[in-house]
Amino acid sequence: MIHLERDKKAAFVSIGVTAFLAIIKYFFGILSGSIALTADAIHSLTDVISSVGVLIGLKISSRKPTKAFPYGFYKAENIVSLFLALAIFYAGYEIILTSVEKFGTVVLTNLPFAIAAALTSLVFTVLLSRYKLKVGRELNSPSLIADGKHTQADTYASAAVLLGLLGYYFGFSSLDAIAGIFVSVFVFRAGYEILKDAIKVLLDASIGYESLNRIREVASGTYGVRKIRSLKARSSGKFMFIELEIETNLKDLERAHQLSDRIEEQIKSEIKNVDRVLVHMEPEEKEYIRYAIPCTENKGLSSKVSGHFGAAEYFCLFDLRTADNELTDMRFIKNPYLALERRKGLKAAELLVTNKIDKLITKESIAQKSAFYVLEDAYVEFEETDADAIEEIVEELKA
Ligand SMILES: [Zn+2]
Question: What spacing in Å lies between the alpha carbon of 154 and ligand 1's midpoint?
Answer without folding.
Answer: 5
